[in-house]
UniProtKB/TrEMBL annotation:
EC number(s) reported in the record: 2.4.1.-
Protein known as: Mannosyltransferase
Organism: Caenorhabditis remanei (Caenorhabditis vulgaris)
Pathway recorded for this protein: Protein modification; protein glycosylation
Topological relation to the membrane, as annotated: Multi-pass membrane protein
UniProt record similarity statement: Belongs to the glycosyltransferase 22 family.
């Protein structure tokens, strides 16, 4: 008898109570060499495809993570107020984790755009490994494992989140490992993942550690193991992070504590950046999970039905014992939805950490429906094919639609690099690339070369637009990296108040990147200024203002012919200033 069995035994779960033959076979028999199995190679390729093709759709990802990483690698980048030592609510330790593998590869051998893709590739592979680990734990019931694999592999939400350089995406990947560790009863690994995800990634992920707390303290009677492991792993992680952040900020900093204080106790806090109703999350879940999200939410009424049946049969305690693990995971996902649904400020990335639980619970619900009802229907194969076919097609449609409609803002910077690499046109000592209203779609300084073809420095600047919030400013150039990170920048605030010092005059710009829309007082249409600005390159870009209503549905999901017919496209354009000879 093992120590684990002596201390409390191994409780059954709904994914492991069946024999392999009953649930579809043995995973080892199905795919003896896991890492060479076609299904896992397909997942690997899908994740790499996402890393290479998915746009950056969150300016926080650029300015709070890509820019500090660019500073670490190339000694310059944009700084947000969150990285000011005065506020210090972001962690340099998190940045450093992504810096290490790139430095080990000797990033100077690659172009900045290639380094950008390498980082995204590492993140995508990391997520792929997490999905694989969770699948192998769930696949004790092969059918449930297969359904989970389909959901996670083809979900457009995971496709977009897996290569994103965001703490919420980082936490999502660690949730895959946490899920697998919990189902395999690998307590040390699970506690480490929760602790690391909470301290280094996002403090609010602590709620997803609820299953370990309940199972180890109250079900398994593993209080000593839980307390000691949590203290050792949590304190060691916190210490390393504290030392790293304190070194870079130049003072004692607990970044995870600061971000909690800002979000909970700082008055308006995140609400300064917009508020949404709960409908915002419902729409995002439907867009990113389509039919699978309905299976996820169906778990609530199906649970009540199962509990009621167990009560009638006098088997409630047996039901709860058998399904303890699934119930705890479902409750933690529900708590996440309640907590973040109650917050006024909502963002799509706030849902990333529970994506693995959505795939898992939806797979469990499918298994229950199959056993209780679907298995008795003569045309069940037609229904199954329709369900999974719809999920895969809608997911692919959603992912391609995002790429088709919004990739122009990344492609235009490739055109900029080609232009700066081949053209000599001005006598200026500096080439200025400027953006106005499109500041929030800037894909990071990784897309701005240091020098042009003639050896002139290239700089990126902001033009004044209708936006009246706070824009980032360049990190101070210093003799070393810590000169930049420890410097307390002027004209910063945590109230999202505009600082006009961020802007440069349009006449000082050599290039302008803009999306062609109607003119306003501060946002001219540069196509109407052909005497001053020359079009160098244009890429199609969705005009959201003219693609609403039914067109909005065909904007969210790409349907050949109909989406082209209904949606209105504009252009994302690179302009060059026309030099008039005197």
């Amino acid at each position: 008898m093992t120590t684990r069995q002596r201390r409390g035994g191994t409780s059954k779960t709904s994914i492991s109570e069946k024999e392999p033959a009953e649930s579809g076979g043995d995973i080892k028999a199905e795919c003896p060499d896991t890492y060479r199995c076609p299904m896992f190679l397909a997942l690997f390729l899908v994740r790499l495809l996402g890393a290479c093709s998915q746009i950056i759709n969150d300016c926080d990802e650029v300015y709070n993570y890509w820019e500090p990483l660019h500073l670490f690698l190339y000694e310059e980048g944009f700084q947000t107020w969150e990285y000011s030592p005065i506020y210090a609510i972001r962690s340099y330790f998190y940045i450093y984790l992504h810096y290490i593998p790139i430095v080990c590869l000797d990033h100077t051998r690659f172009s900045k755009a290639t380094v950008f893709l390498l980082v995204r590739g590492f993140l995508a592979i990391f997520c792929c490994l997490g999905e694989l680990y969770a699948y192998k734990a769930i696949a004790k019931n092969i059918r449930t494992g297969r359904v989970f694999f389909i959901f996670t592999m083809f979900s457009s939400g995971v496709f977009q989140a897996s290569p994103a350089f965001l703490p919420s995406s980082f936490c999502m990947t660690l949730t895959y490992f946490t899920l697998g560790a919990f189902l395999n009863e690998r307590w040390t690994l699970g506690i480490f993942c929760v602790a690391f995800s909470t301290l280094v990634g996002w403090p609010f992920v602590a709620v997803l550690g609820l299953p370990f707390v309940v199972l180890m303290l109250y079900v398994k009677d593993l209080k000593f193991e839980f307390i000691v492991t949590s203290l050792l792993l949590g304190s060691s992680t916190a210490l390393v992070q504290f030392l790293t952040d304190s070194y870079y900020f130049g003072k004692p900093v607990v970044a995870s504590l600061n971000i909690v204080l800002y979000n909970v106790l700082s008055g308006p806090g995140p609400s300064l950046y917009g508020e949404e109703s709960i409908i915002f999350y419902i729409k995002n879940l439907i867009l990113n999970w389509n039919v699978a999200i309905f299976a996820f939410f169906a778990g609530v009424p199906l649970s009540f039905i199962a509990i009621r049946k167990a009560l009638k049969e006098g088997k409630l305690s047996t039901f709860l014992e058998t399904n303890t693990s699934v119930i705890l995971l479902a409750v933690s996902a529900a708590l996440w939805m309640v907590i973040f649904g109650a917050q006024a400020h909502k963002e799509e990335r706030f849902l990333f950490p529970i994506y693995p639980l959505i795939a898992f619970i939806a797979a469990i619900v499918y298994e229950h429906v199959y056993d209780q009802w679907l298995n008795r229907i003569s045309f069940k194969n037609v229904l199954i094919c329709f369900f999974f076919g719809s999920f895969v097609l809608l997911s692919a449609s959603r992912s391609f639609s995002v790429y088709r409609n919004y990739s122009g803002h990344v492609n235009i910077y490739s055109s900029l690099n080609e232009e700066l690499g081949n053209t000599e046109f001005s006598s200026d000592t500096v080439n200025r690339v400027c953006v106005g209203k499109e500041w929030h779609r800037f894909p990071s300084s990784f897309f701005i070369p240091k020098m042009d073809h003639s050896g002139r420095k290239v700089e990126f600047h902001f033009l004044q637009s209708e936006f009246r919030g706070l824009l980032p400013k360049p990190f101070k150039r210093g003799y070393s990296r810590i000169d930049s990170t420890r410097h307390e920048p002027t004209e910063m605030n945590n109230l999202n108040k505009e600082e006009v010092s961020r802007y440069v005059d349009l006449d000082s710009c050599n290039y302008v990147i803009d999306v062609d829309m109607s003119s306003t007082e501060f946002e001219p249409n540069f196509r109407n200024m052909s005497d001053k600005w020359m079009v160098l390159a244009s890429h199609p870009f969705i005009d959201v203002s003219k693609s609403s209503g039914f067109a909005g549905l065909l904007r969210a999901f790409y349907i050949p012919y109909f989406s082209e017919k209904v949606n209105k496209m504009t252009t994302y354009t690179l302009y060059r200033r026309i030099i008039i000879e005197k």
